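Figure 3 (text version): structure tokens given as input.
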């Protein structure tokens, strides 16, 4: 499948609002009164990604991710939802530092630490990993090891040229 560059319906991208004082800074990562209607996180986690490393691409069948990027990242997105008006679109977000990105189910996503130091990503998805008590199947399709996958971060980088 050939993807076209363009916005993807349901993906929300915004910068953190930073509140500074003489101690440092604070940012509200989410508030229930500012989340998209019907979205409520079920858990939260933090991950550290080494410089140059890419995570993904993968997609969730039912889960929406609420990523908070802290570091220098590029984010790669492909709309793989057959019923979406933006089906077949792809997006590359460079310099996703201090960025909040909401990724709905069916949108394939990957991110790469493009910085010179470790980068942190917080995620507040609306589903528990493997369900209550971790008894369910993992809600994702992983494309990293699929040689014929159309979801190629390096190709999005080349197209952005």
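Below: residues designed for each position.
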């Amino acid at each position: 499948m050939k993807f076209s560059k363009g916005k993807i319906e349901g993906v929300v991208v915004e910068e953190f609002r930073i509140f500074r004082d003489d101690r440092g800074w604070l940012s509200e990562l989410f508030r229930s009164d500012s989340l998209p209607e019907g979205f409520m996180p079920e858990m939260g986690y933090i991950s550290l990604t080494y410089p140059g490393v890419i995570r993904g691409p993968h997609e969730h069948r039912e889960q929406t991710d609420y990523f908070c990027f802290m570091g220098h990242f590029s984010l790669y997105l492909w709309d793989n939802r057959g019923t979406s008006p933006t089906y077949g679109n792809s997006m590359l977000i460079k310099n996703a530092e201090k960025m909040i990105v909401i990724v709905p189910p069916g949108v394939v996503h990957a991110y790469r630490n493009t910085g010179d130091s470790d980068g942190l990503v917080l995620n507040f998805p609306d589903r528990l990993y493997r369900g209550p008590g971790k008894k369910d199947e993992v809600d994702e399709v992983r494309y990293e090891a699929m040689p014929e996958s159309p979801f190629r971060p390096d190709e999005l980088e080349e197209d952005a040229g």
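The first strand starts at residue 4 and ends at 5.
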